[in-house]
Design brief:
Blueprint: H1 4-19, H2 28-36, E1 47-49, H3 50-53, H4 55-58, H5 61-80, H6 89-99, H7 104-131, H8 140-161, H9 167-181, H10 187-195, H11 202-233, H12 242-247, E2 268-270, E3 276-278, E4 287-289, H13 290-315, H14 337-345, H15 351-368, H16 386-406, H17 413-428, H18 436-443, H19 447-468, H20 479-482
Antiparallel strand pairs: 1-4, 2-3
Helix pairs in contact: 5-7, 5-13, 6-7, 7-8, 7-13, 8-11, 9-10, 14-19, 16-17, 17-19
The structure holds protoporphyrin IX containing FE.
């Protein structure tokens, strides 16, 4: 007859086994079971290529964006215990968080700063994914899902902006919804739908609250799940072939993908020259078990991110201006930093162009770029007919410069200067020098790569100008002399 201790041990094991389908040994079989049988971990493969796990491959930017979303969901849920979406209670609840609720300030700070960090990480993730060429087939649809996630992330952050019901919130949302209103044909209806009326009041607050706390997080959660699942189904993290690494040690190469590779089954990995290779054919490519190698790395990255966010939240308080007052417009009324670039554009173009046409064109261009195999060919762009191509390039640059110099109220230098910088850098690749790795790198970049760099530089310059160099009535100010408005 088993002893009491034995019976208890058996019962404990049975309970454990009913929940978890793996044991405690460190065999590879058990490690595989840990990943396969866990709802959260089964998004990972059982093993992955060692090169894919390198920090510099992705900087874990996608994973860290997801981690921010997790922290936001958690801190947001706690905030909901103290917040009422009504005017003016919403503002008083913010004050209560600061002065009455234990750790309320910290909670609010954590939520606010994590939201900003998430937008920055998503942007960096998008840029890094593009620049290393991971947007191309067979990952093009996942890239499109990513563009959707970016839009939803920005909307999620923006809808949260109104909730404190202070001057900052009220006027940032006024600027934003006025831009929505100028959308051709549907603008007014869209604004009406968003605000639940013609003014920003209780109705608008409730709508933004539901969008912010229920609808958009649901869409984002489903979207992120789909996105991460697709990363696996598209063959895992994009890796340039080792041999190509050796040829071009300073960056991924870019090449067209043959049509046959477009319908790639999940077990096939597309390497950068477009030839589909079976995973098993990758030869002696070193593989590592996901548990513990990848999971430990992810845990360390998550803890490092959490530590940074906690420190920022302890050190810096989230702003809270005076109670929203529709009769008193702050000057300047700046949008959140991720919209300041658009607000800066409003100085040059009418709202319909700056607020609707150009941002929509940008999002559409981003979404469709992987479907155009423009100049992703080898040999490098300047190898054939360099003079004709150079002439075409500069014709394009001059035409675009004309558009951005003469179609607005004044020249948009924040777009034209990056355009010329990119043009000159590209053209250097047509010269016999520089040689060496830098020369090879320069000549093997594709046209979409350079266009993306132009977009990035222009967006960064517009945002920095609006954020640091604009003051009352959007006049030019010097931040180190006049301060940041
Ligand atoms: C809420 C936002 C997002 C989350 C949580 C997210 C999450 C992830 C994760 C976890 C990965 C695996 C690799 C890594 O950690 O970097 C990944 C890969 C990827 N993401 Fe995202 N992502 C987001 C937004 C975006 C955006 C905005 C884009 C592009 C427009 C994008 C495009 C891609 C692509 C193409 C891959 C595959 C990269 C490769 O194979 O190397 N994602 N994402």
């Amino acid at each position: 007859m088993p002893s009491l201790a034995q019976t208890l041990a058996n019962a404990r094991l049975r309970v454990w086994r009913s929940v978890f389908r793996h044991g405690f040994t460190s065999s590879n079989r058990n490690r595989s079971l840990i990943v396969l049988s866990n709802f959260f971990l089964h998004f990972h493969p059982v093993k992955a290529r060692a090169r894919a796990m390198r920090f510099t491959r992705t900087f874990y930017l996608g994973g860290l964006s997801a981690a921010c979303f997790f922290i936001l969901t958690l801190s947001g849920t706690f905030l909901m215990f103290y917040y009422r979406p009504a005017v003016p209670q919403a503002y008083h609840d913010m004050k209560d968080l600061a002065f009455v609720v234990p750790s309320g300030t910290f909670l609010r700070n954590l939520h606010r700063w994590t939201a900003h960090v998430m937008i920055a990480l998503v942007l960096l993730h998008m840029a890094w994914t593009f620049l290393r060429g991971a947007y191309r087939p067979p990952r093009e649809f996942n890239w499109v899902i990513g563009v959707g996630l970016f839009v939803v992330s920005v909307l999620l952050s923006y809808t949260g902006y109104l909730l404190p019901w202070d001057q900052l919130a009220y006027w940032a949302v006024t600027v934003g919804t006025n831009m929505v209103a100028v959308t051709p044909l549907v603008g007014h209806e869209l604004r009406l739908l968003l605000l639940g009326g013609h003014a920003i009041n209780d109705n608008a607050l409730l709508r933004f609250y539901v969008l912010h706390c229920v609808l958009l997080p649901m869409v984002l959660a489903i979207g992120v799940g789909l996105h991460v699942w697709r990363v696996r189904k598209d063959g895992g993290i994009y890796l340039p072939r080792e041999a190509r690494d050796h040829d071009h040690p300073h960056g991924p190469t870019e090449a067209p993908v043959p049509p046959a590779a477009l319908a790639t089954p999940a077990h096939i990995v597309i390497v950068d020259d477009g030839a589909p290779d079976l995973v098993a054919d990758l030869g002696d490519e070193p593989m590592l078990m996901t548990f513990p190698h990848l999971l430990v790395r992810e845990l360390v990255a998550f803890l490092a991110l959490s530590l940074c966010l906690v420190l920022i939240s302890l050190r810096f308080d989230a702003p809270l201006a005076a109670l929203a007052d529709p009769s008193r417009t702050p000057n300047p009324a700046k949008a959140p930093w991720y919209f300041v670039g658009v607000q800066e554009l409003l100085q040059y173009y009418p709202p319909v162009v700056a607020g609707v046409v150009l941002p929509s064109l940008l999002v559409v261009a981003l979404a469709i770029v992987p479907y155009f195999q423009v100049n992703v060919e080898r040999p490098p762009v300047w190898q054939t007919a360099p003079f004709r191509r150079l002439a075409l390039l500069w014709l394009g640059i001059v035409a675009l410069s004309w558009v951005f110099c003469f179609t607005g109220a004044r020249p948009v230098w924040a777009i034209v200067v990056p355009l010329w910088l990119v043009g000159v850098t590209m053209s250097v690749g047509a010269l016999p020098w520089p040689s060496g790795p830098f020369g090879v790198w320069l000549r093997t970049r594709s046209l979409p790569f350079w266009i993306f760099v132009w977009f990035l530089l222009s967006a960064a310059t517009l945002t920095a100008t609006g954020f640091f160099f604009r003051g009352p009535s959007w006049s030019f100010t010097i931040p180190w002399r006049d301060g940041i408005y």
